[in-house]
Amino acid sequence: MSLRPRKSIAGLKNCVHGGINHSELTALGIDASSVLDFSVCTNPFMPPPGIKEKIGAISIEQYPDSRAAELKGRLSERLGISTANILVGNGTTELIRLVALTYFRNNDRVLLLEPTYGEYEVASRLAGARLIKHRAVESNNFAPDIEKVRSIIKQHHPRAVFVCNPNNPTGRYLSRDDIEKVLDIIEDGLLVLDEAYIDFIESPWNSLDLTERGNVVVLRSLTKNYGLPGLRLGYAVAREEIIKDLQIALPPWNVNAVAQKVGTAVMEKDEHLKQSLRQVREAKRYLVEGLTRLGLKVQPSDAHYFLVKAGNGAGYRRSLLKESILVRDCTSFGLPEYIRISPRTMPECERLITAIRNLLEAGEET
Questions:
Q1: What is the Cα–Cα distance from 71 to 75, expressed in whole angstroms?
Q2: What's the pLDDT tens digit per position in 120-149?
Q3: Final residue belonging to a domain, choices 234, 249, 266
C-alpha cells in the first residue's frame, strides 16, 4: 500500500497499561469477573454509595456540555481557583496528548524522568518531539537525581519536562523544593506536573500556586481516587492563557454527560473518600509486611502502589493469573524483574499473599 503514516507514527507502539485484557482471559478460559485486579492503582473502596444508582438517572438524549461548566464550577470551589484556570479532560491521558499537540513542535526536545508513565513518550513522539531521558536507579530506590536533571536541562534546553508526582510505577513523591529546583532552571520550557495519584499521598504539598509562573500545567485525576476509571475523567490547572490554548485543540464534547454529572456528585463525598484512603493505607501496610516476611524486596513508595522485586515479573504475572489474580508486570517500564501491586480490600489482599506464598513454596513463580 502506498499510503503511509507520518514519520512520527511509523514504528510507534501502543503504550502498555495495567488492567484486564479481556482477549487474554478468553484465550486462557478465565472469567473476567472472577479476577482480582491488583495491577491498576485505583481506590478499591470506592465509588461512594449512591453513585452507581445516580448514573441511570442521567440524561443522555442531548450532547454534553463542551465546557463542562458545572463540573468546573465545583472544582473551582474545591480548589479555590478560577474556572478560567481549569480544563476538564477525558482522563489525564487525553490531556497529556493535548499538551503535546498544542505546544510541541517537530524535533523539540522533551525530558522524561524514567521509569515513568509510558504515555508521555507516546504523546511526545506523536508530536514529532525528540526524547531526552534521565533514569532513576535501583540503588537510589528509584528516586531521580535532581542535580543530574538540572544538568540535563541546562545542556539541552527542553521544550517540556514531564514529572509524574507521585511517580508511576515507583510511587516516589518529590518535594516542593525538588520541583522548584527543576522549574527554576527550565526557563521558557513547560513543566507538566502529573498528579494523577496525589490524593493517595498522606501529606501532599499544594502545587497549584506554581501555575502562576506561567509555564506549569498540573494534571489530576477524578477517577483513580473515587474508583471510577471506566468513566475517564481528569482535569488540568494552568494559567488562563495556557487553558485557552489547550481549549482550541480540545475535541468538542470530549467529556461525556455521565462522567460530568458523576464527577460533580462524587466531590460531595469527602468523608467517604477520607475513610476509604485510610483503608487503602491499611491494606498497603498489610501487603508490604506480608510480602517482606515472604522474603521479597519491596521498594519504598510514598503512594499506595509499590514495586516488588520478583526476579521475573512476567513469570509472576503469568503464574498468578492462573489463580485469577492480576499484578502489573513492569517489563514495559524497563523493569523486567519487578511487579507493581496496588492494594485491594483486606480479604483480597490476604488471598494475594496466600497465592504468592504458594508460588514460592512450589517454585512456580517463573
A1: 6
A2: 999 999 999 999 999 999 999 999 999 999
A3: 266
Q: Are strands 338-341 and 190-194 parallel, antiparallel or unpaired?
A: unpaired
Helices (H), the chain: 22-28, 51-55, 69-79, 92-103, 119-126, 146-156, 176-183, 240-249, 257-266, 270-293, 313-321, 346-362
Q: Which domain holds residue 181?
A: 51-266
Contacts of 155 (CB under 8 A, 6+ apart): none
DSSP assigned state of 14: P
> CB–CB of 304/41 below 8 Å?
yes
Domain end residue (candidates: 266, 285, 320): 266
C-alpha cell at position 46: 470506592
Q: What span, in angstroms and rounded, lies between the C-alpha atoms of 204 and 335?
A: 27
Contact 127, 101 (CB under 8 A): yes
Let me know whether 75 and 31 are in one domain. Answer: no
The total number of structural domains in the chain stands at: 2
What is the CATH number for 173? 3.40.640.10
Residue type, 182: V
End-to-end C-alpha distance for the chain, whole angstroms: 42
Its pTM stands at 0.96
Cell triple for residue 243? 487553558
Q: Which amino acid is at 175?
A: S
What is the tens place of the pLDDT at every residue in 231-284?
A: 999 999 999 999 999 999 999 999 999 999 999 999 998 899 999 999 999 999
C-alpha cell at 258: 455521565
Q: Please give the grid coordinates belonging to residue 295.
A: 522474603
